[in-house]
Amino acid sequence: MPSTRDIRRRIKSVKNTAQITKAMQMVASSKMRKAQLAALAGRPYATLMNSVLANVAADAVDFTHPLMAKREGGKHCVVLVSTDKGLCGALNSNLTREALKFDKDTTIFVCAGKKGAQFVARNKRNLAAEFTYKDAPLFAEARAISKFVQELFTKGEVDSVEVLYTNFISTLVQKPESQPLLPIGELKGVQAGVPHGNAPALETSGLEFQFEPGADQVLGALLPHALNFQIYQILLEAKASEQSSRMVAMKNATDNAKQLIKDLTLEYNKLRQANITKELLEITTAQMALG
Predict the structure, then answer these.
(1) How far apart are CA 190 and CA 284, in angstroms?
(2) Total domain count for the chain?
(3) What pLDDT does residue 58 have?
(4) Whole-number pLDDT of residue 57
């Protein structure tokens, strides 16, 4: 049975932990708001880009591009977008659980985030490259990832590319999702920069657009940029999911610490009262023995 000194030490330790988790909760709450606004701000641009691509594709019926080449083969690349730090609940574990579903022999991983790279190394999967991105992702960071996987695809080292990330739905809900990246399918279905499940339906205006120098040239320039922005938007969604999950996890940890302090304080008071009662009984017994 623990002594009162042990319980006091444990109460002090839990209080220190609660102060840390409370501070982390406040920091994550501040970063969460910025990350959510950044993710939501990118969606209208992605929708507009998708509309432009659809209109250009209507005038370029016979257009072909290396990024649209469909090949028969089993080589597969997965861009795993995880976090650099932990303490964000089950976010990374849910993501890596989905990553385990890919075939180990035919899949290579390109990781954005240290946790994903650690998972790939720990499970002895094939890691092609590791990238990092900041709390406020930069377009240059997304462009570097996109350029690397585009080169893998155009050189024929992989036959398809897929992005596995955590989609931001709300502060309390973040869902791991997989989105095909390469080869690009029908341009009318391209959702450039809009994560799977969040893309609004295109509205057809019935207007005819003219492009200079031509639809083929416009598409050739737009497709790489569309993929770059698609990766960028996914990084924004993943960062918003990370900060939201961390804020919720730290709040739960703080609440649990406060409850544990209450339980330990109650146990301490009971033990202290029992010791006082025991001492009083010993004093009373001694006085009765002395007469």
Answers:
(1) 87
(2) 2
(3) 61
(4) 63
Q: What is the CATH number of the domain that holds 206?
A: 3.40.1380.10
pLDDT for position 248: 92
Do 204 and 257 belong together in one domain? no
Same domain, 252 and 220: no
Same domain, yes or no, for 166 and 197?
Answer: yes
Q: Say how many C-beta atoms besides its own lie within 10 A of residue 184's C-beta.
A: 21
Q: Is the pLDDT of residue 140 over 50?
A: yes
**Segments forming the whole domain that contains residue 175:** 28-246
CATH number of the domain within which 272 lies: 1.10.287.80
pLDDT tens, residue by residue, 83-98: 998 888 889 999 999 9
Cβ neighbour number for residue 178 with a 10 Å cutoff: 16
- Angle of CA points 22, 25, 30, to nearest 5°: 135
Looking at 227, 246, 265, the residue that finishes a domain is 246
Give the position of tokens 């804020």.
Answer: 247
Burial class (CB in 10 A: 0-12, 13-18, 19+), 17: middle
Burial class (CB in 10 A: 0-12, 13-18, 19+), 279: exposed
Indicate if 207 and 177 belong to the same structural domain. Answer: yes
Residue positions annotated with a catalytic role = 88
For residue 230, give the nearest of 156, 161, 135 by alpha carbon.
Answer: 161
- Residue-by-residue DSSP string for 106-138: TEEEEEESHHHHHHHHHTT-EEEEEE---SS--
- Give 127's Cβ-side CA count (13 Å radius): 18
pLDDT tens profile 45-70: 877 776 777 666 666 667 777 887 78
Pairing of strands 160-168, 126-131: unpaired
User: Can you give the pTM of this predicted structure?
Assistant: 0.81
97 and 233 part of one domain:
yes
| Tokens standing for residue 79 | 């861009």
Tokens, residue 38: 């950044």
Mean pLDDT across the chain, nearest whole number? Answer: 84
